[in-house]
């Protein structure tokens, strides 16, 4: 059994390397990561960092991969796209990573795509926007459900409720802008018309004017907010303060306990699509995600004293997909790992069942990867459909 090593801070940019001692002649398998462990997107990146560190340790304790230890190096990009690209380059050129996992945000991911494509290193993104994998990029994969899938889930729920005209409010950052675009493209498929369309900047702290304009349009039957971070909590609190009497929906970009804490009682009654991990204990016993999500949830809770978010689940799936691909490839050759990732089928993760192909570098289907929930009494509750 391989021993754990300590975490060592290597620079002020918050880079850490976690691995096992060189107990065998073979070099370690190097997993490189850049995540937003601090800054405005820390609620995404901090649980991702924790998850990757935790499971690299566990894998090494169990003998590593291909009989070799994993070496985990990560950098904190603080949510800045330019830093993400710098760290991606460093992970490839200096740290000689065999696989990259990261890009907590769409901006951080997309800033690094050209680099990993040119240098031909397998990269598993943790960002939500569909642009990460559509169009397909040879070396880029991802684990989160897409914003397009989220829009489809939300509009399907609206359709069941007889809602046909909505107001849309979204952030102008990478995820919010992509979500807005996907909402416009998907809405007609569900007989839904976007009659009010408002946006706000990432650093805005009050969205009352935009929501007031939406409220003034009596044709609006519901509101959809597409964004991540603290902004959706502000939108939710502003919505409640204005006494808007039409349903509010959020995207999977807020699927964490942090959102519930920030939004408080204002979140009561909102609906959104979430990964199975958030409602693991509510899943049916025959649900294919019940076993993986409960096991992950218990391990994370024991290690950190808190329940994992969907964003932690994305990191878990990324690492396990990488390990599975390396084992099937029997090699750390980047081309072999890439090919194995693309051939992944029937992989039961905590986000869903992954079936990848040359045409699909995410591999999730909407039925297994999303559950519609409503906030009731400050907790997530599954919405049951006939």
Q: What do you see in this structure?
A:
There is one protein chain. With about 375 residues, the protein is an alpha/beta fold. It folds into two domains: about 10-145 and about 290-370, Rossmann fold; about 150-275, Rossmann fold. The protein has helices at about 40-60, 80-95, 105-120, 145-160, 175-185, 210-215, 230-240, 255-265, 290-305, 310-330, 335-340, 365-370, and strands spanning about 10, 15-20, 30-35, 70-75, 100, 125, 140, 165-170, 195-200, 220-225, 250, 270-275, 345-350, 355, 370-375, 380. Helix 2 packs parallel to helix 3 (about 105-120). Residues about 1-15 and about 20-25 have low confidence and may be disordered.
Name its key features:
386 residues; 16 strands; alpha/beta; Rossmann fold; 2 domains; globular; four-stranded parallel β-sheet; 12 helices
Biggest sheet details: 7 strands, mixed
Mean pLDDT across all amino acids: 92
Structural class: alpha/beta
Give the total of domains: 2
By CATH's scheme, which homologous superfamily of the largest domain applies? Response regulator
Cα shape: globular
- The name of the CATH architecture of the largest domain is 3-Layer(aba) Sandwich
Q: Classify the beta-strand content into a percent band.
A: 15-25%
Give the helix level as a range of percent.
25-40%
Strands in their spatial order, largest beta sheet: 1-2-4-3-5-6-7
Q: Can you identify the CATH class of the largest domain?
A: Alpha Beta
- Encode the helix/strand succession as letters: EEEHEHEHEEHEHEHEHEHEHHHEEHEE
How many helices? The count is 12
* Overall radius of gyration: 21 Å
Low-confidence segments: 1-14, 20-25
In CATH, the topology of the largest domain is named Rossmann fold
Report, as a whole number of angstroms, the end-to-end distance: 51 Å
Kindly state the number of beta strands. 16
């Amino acid at each position: 059994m391989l021993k754990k090593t300590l975490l060592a801070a290597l620079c002020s940019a918050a880079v850490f390397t976690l691995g096992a001692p060189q107990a065998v002649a073979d070099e370690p398998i190097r997993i490189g990561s850049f995540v937003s462990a601090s800054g405005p997107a820390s609620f995404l990146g901090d649980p991702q960092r924790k998850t990757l560190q935790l499971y690299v340790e566990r894998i090494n304790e169990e003998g590593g991969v291909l009989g070799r230890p994993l070496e985990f190096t990560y950098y904190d990009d603080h949510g800045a796209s330019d830093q993400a690209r710098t760290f991606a380059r460093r992970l490839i050129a200096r740290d000689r990573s065999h696989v990259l996992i990261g890009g907590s945000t769409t901006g951080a991911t997309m800033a690094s795509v050209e680099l990993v494509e040119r240098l031909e290193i397998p990269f598993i993104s943790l960002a939500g926007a569909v642009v990460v994998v559509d169009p397909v990029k040879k070396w880029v994969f991802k684990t989160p459900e897409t914003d397009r899938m989220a829009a489809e889930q939300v509009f399907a729920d609206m359709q069941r409720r007889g809602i046909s005209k909505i107001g849309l409010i979204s952030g102008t950052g990478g995820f919010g802008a992509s979500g807005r675009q996907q909402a416009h493209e998907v809405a007609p498929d569900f007989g839904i018309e976007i009659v009010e369309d408002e946006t706000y900047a990432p650093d805005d702290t009050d969205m009352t004017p935009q929501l007031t304009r939406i409220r003034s349009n009596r044709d609006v039957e519901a509101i959809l907010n597409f964004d991540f971070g603290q902004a959706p909590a502000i939108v939710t609190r502003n919505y409640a303060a204005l006494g808007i009497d039409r349903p509010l929906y959020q995207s999977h970009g807020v699927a964490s306990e942090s959102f519930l804490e920030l939004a408080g009682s204002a979140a009561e009654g909102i609906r959104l699509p979430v990964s199975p991990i958030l409602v693991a204990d509510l899943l049916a016993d025959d649900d294919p995600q019940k076993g993986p999500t409960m096991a992950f949830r218990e391990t994370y809770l024991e290690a950190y004293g808190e329940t994992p978010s969907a964003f932690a689940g994305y990191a878990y799936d990324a690492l396990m997909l990488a390990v599975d691909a390396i084992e099937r490839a029997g090699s750390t050759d980047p081309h072999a790992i890439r090919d194995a990732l693309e051939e992944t089928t029937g992989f039961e993760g905590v986000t869903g069942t992954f079936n990848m192909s040359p045409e699909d570098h995410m591999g999730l289907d909407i039925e297994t990867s999303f559950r519609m929930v409503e906030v009731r009494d400050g907790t997530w509750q599954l919405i049951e459909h006939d």
